[in-house]
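FORM 12-B: Structure-to-Sequence Request
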């Protein structure tokens, strides 16, 4: 039997659903090498109830993949909401609208899909990768991640070599990878031996970026 998820809602925003702060004054940009950049807005989405409604309400699917000639479980659960598909929470529509308001002028297109990952505890993780299944392999783009729930370490490393970068993402943090980041850098969310509860990551992407 699967252990129940440890969902630790934030106590910072007891009312939930507070108006989203405009991004321009709160987002800090870090210019990376090779035309990549990262924006970080700590605690941008403080909603206390969003984690439990997504963790419990989204139709999560488990995936398996081949590793060293064995079929293994992918250590996280996944969901994907394609262009035009209703998002599971209205609040995410407001989040996507706010992201579009901020990033559309430079990006020239809207963020239209939402991928979601559920990391049930510290054993769940994602290995080093870039989002290069689609246009991110060839073109500059934006991948905007909202992190909900347990704090987890998010790492970025340049493919051309050099030091990696670490973000300790906390509940409500927004982290946006932009420019060439998907093809010139990789990102990962390592496992942790710490006792951590569930984390949901929501990734907003443009059409054809996966
Ligand atoms: O959990 C995260 O924030 C990262 C997710 C991710 O890298 C991906 O699904 O491609």
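FORM 12-B RESPONSE
SEQUENCE OUT:
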């Amino acid at each position: 039997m699967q252990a129940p998820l440890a969902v630790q809602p934030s106590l910072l925003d007891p009312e939930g659903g507070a108006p989203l702060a405009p991004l321009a004054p709160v987002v800090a940009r870090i210019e990376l090498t090779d035309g990549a950049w990262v924006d970080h807005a700590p605690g941008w989405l403080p909603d206390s109830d969003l984690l439990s409604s997504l963790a419990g309400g989204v139709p999560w699917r488990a995936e398996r993949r081949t590793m060293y000639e064995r079929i293994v479980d992918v250590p996280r659960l996944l969901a994907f909401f394609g262009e035009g598909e209703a998002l599971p929470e209205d609040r995410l529509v407001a989040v996507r609208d706010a992201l579009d308001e901020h990033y559309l002028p430079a990006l020239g297109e809207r963020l239209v899909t939402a991928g979601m990952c559920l990391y049930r505890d510290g054993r769940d993780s994602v290995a080093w990768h870039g989002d290069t299944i689609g246009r991110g392999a060839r073109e500059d783009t934006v991948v905007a991640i909202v992190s909900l729930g347990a704090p987890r370490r998010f790492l970025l490393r340049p493919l051309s070599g050099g030091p990696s970068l670490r973000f300790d993402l906390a509940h409500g943090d927004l982290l946006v990878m932009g420019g060439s980041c998907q093809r010139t850098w990789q990102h990962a969310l390592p496992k942790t031996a710490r006792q951590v509860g569930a984390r949901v990551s929501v990734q907003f992407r443009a059409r054809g970026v996966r």
